[in-house]
């Protein structure tokens, strides 16, 4: 684990030395967070934006809905929603770094793990207790909400699994960045042996 | 601009065609083929040089995108109108109303007595009505989520209707306030202890209350509320429709912050 964390530190300092990757991670993390918090109220936001009200008022309502993270999420759901958004931003920026260095095969593997994390996290977003979670919203009365609510943590398991998968993906990407599997040039000493 | 360029291409083609038709010295078939070829080349050259074709395609794509956008906006408006239309009109006889019954803005809340977010949102709604200076009326309707709060949520909804039957609108709101104060949500309520206690505290006849609850005579009404919640687009609780006097509806999902509800009320108030 120590080695993984050392790789993570090395990879983060290498990738985020560039302001472009910091911006990419920030924007993606923010988009993921907004999508999660606004998801139940996309219809309302569209409705409000279509009114003749001053732009400031419209934006104020949209931004005010972000306060829903405190009032419409349990503490656990809020914690993993934020963690998923942050990890998603970091992971995607680091995979982009790998792709830009043509290490496509390594990046592809991590995209697969990361996607699993995002998909799992999406299932856990929201409030399983009141059926306003993503899956419950998409399939409200087909038993999906009931199935999730029957789980010990009421569906939060998916959010936690999402965090774990994204973190694993982050560690794997970090290893690929910090310790590339390229063939190293033989040293002079190794050549003599 | 684009049309002019295209017209110029066609004009060039006609002129060439006319010139060719007036100078027939070679056999007819060969002349026709050569003429068609020259016309084609001239038209293509004109279109290429003037970029008329590209401009026409660009304009066509823009028109298509604009049309798609307008259709999507129209669909969204139609959906919103159909949602608003699906909401059962507020009735002073049937509905439980808090605040000024003639207020310009109506908040129709579809709620579940076992939902922890409905519990916290209940306090938010109380503040909105109390601080609105008569601008808001709050209509409470039932939306028990049987799949995640089986049996209890629906029974509690029926119990609140029994309170209304025995003590009127005021008793309904006293029941709802006290119920959310006393109970832990998430189907952990001890119904046998809590319901009689609330009935006693708010001054209802306990025997009549128990008999009403056992009769199941309000079950149909609760189900009608559930069906209405679904018809208006509700997928979870609390589900609230903010309705202006003119009928404009804003759908609010979840226990959102007090400031947002107040801003929506202001917006609806401007839609008179």
Give a structural overview.
The complex is a heterodimer of chains A (193) and B (272). Chain A has 193 residues and is mainly alpha-helical. Chain A has one domain. In chain A, 74% of the residues lie in helices and 0% in strands. Chain A has helices spanning 2-15, 19-38, 42-49, 55-64, 68-71, 75-100, 104-124, 134-138, 144-149, 156-178, 188-192. The longest helix of chain A has 26 residues, at 75-100. Chain B is an alpha+beta fold. Chain B has two domains: 2-86; 96-270, 3-Layer(aba) Sandwich (Glutaredoxin), CATH 3.40.30. Chain B has a five-stranded mixed sheet, with helices on both faces. In chain B, strand 4 (239-243) and strand 5 form a beta hairpin. In chain B, helix 1 runs antiparallel to helix 2 (28-50) and helix 5 runs antiparallel to helix 7 (206-215). The A-B interface holds A 40-41, 43-44, 46-48, 50-51, 53, 57, 60-61, 64-65, 67-68, 70-72, 74, 126-133, 136-137, 140-141, 143, 145-146, 149, 154 and B 73, 76-77, 80, 112, 115-118, 120-121, 124, 145, 147-148, 185-186, 230, 233, 235-238, 249-257, 259-260, 263-264, 266-267, 270-271.
């Amino acid at each position: 684990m120590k080695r993984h964390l050392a790789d993570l530190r090395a990879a983060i300092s290498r990738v985020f030395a560039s302001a472009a990757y910091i911006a990419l991670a920030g924007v993606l993390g923010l988009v993921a967070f907004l999508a999660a918090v606004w998801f139940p109220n996309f219809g309302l936001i569209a409705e409000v934006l279509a009114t003749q009200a001053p732009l400031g008022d419209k934006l104020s309502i949209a931004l005010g809905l972000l306060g829903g993270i405190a009032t419409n999420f349990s503490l656990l759901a809020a914690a993993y929603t934020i963690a998923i958004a942050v990890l998603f931003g970091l992971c995607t920026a680091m995979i982009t770094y790998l792709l830009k260095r043509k290490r496509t095969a390594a990046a592809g593997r991590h995209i697969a793990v990361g996607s699993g994390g995002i998909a799992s996290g999406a299932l856990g977003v929201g409030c399983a207790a009141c059926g306003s979670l993503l899956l419950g919203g998409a399939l409200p009365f087909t038993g999906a909400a009931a199935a999730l609510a029957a789980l010990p943590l009421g569906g939060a398991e998916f959010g936690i699994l999402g965090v774990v998968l994204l973190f694993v993906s982050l560690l794997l990407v970090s290893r690929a960045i910090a310790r590339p599997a390229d063939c190293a040039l033989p040293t002079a000493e190794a050549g003599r042996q | 601009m684009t049309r002019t360029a295209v017209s110029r291409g066609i004009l060039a083609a006609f002129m060439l065609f006319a010139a060719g038709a007036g100078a027939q010295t070679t056999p007819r078939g060969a002349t026709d083929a050569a003429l068609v070829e020259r016309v084609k080349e001239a038209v293509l050259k004109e279109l290429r040089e003037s970029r008329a074709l590209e401009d026409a395609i660009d304009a066509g794509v823009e028109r298509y995108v604009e049309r798609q956008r307008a259709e999507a906006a129209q669909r969204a408006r139609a959906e919103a109108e159909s949602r608003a239309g699906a909401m059962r009109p507020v009735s002073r006889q049937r509905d439980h109303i808090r605040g000024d019954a003639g207020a310009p803005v109506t908040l129709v809340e579809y709620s579940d007595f076992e939902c922890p977010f409905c519990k916290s949102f209940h306090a938010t709604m109380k503040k909105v009505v109390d601080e609105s200076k008569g601008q808001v009326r709050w209509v409470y309707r039932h939306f028990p989520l049987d799949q995640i709060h089986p049996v209890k949520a629906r029974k509690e909804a029926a119990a609140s209707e029994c309170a209304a039957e025995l003590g009127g609108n005021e008793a309904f709101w006293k029941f709802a306030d006290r119920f959310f104060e006393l109970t832990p949500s998430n189907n952990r309520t001890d119904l046998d202890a809590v319901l009689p206690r609330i009935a006693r505290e708010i001054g209802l006849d306990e025997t009549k209350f128990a008999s009403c609850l056992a009769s199941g005579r309000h079950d149909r009404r609760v189900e009608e509320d559930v069906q209405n919640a679904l018809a208006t687009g509700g997928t979870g609780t609390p589900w609230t429709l903010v309705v202006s006097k003119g009928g404009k509806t804003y759908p609010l999902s979840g226990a959102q912050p007090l400031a947002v509800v107040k801003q929506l009320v202001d917006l609806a108030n401007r839609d008179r």
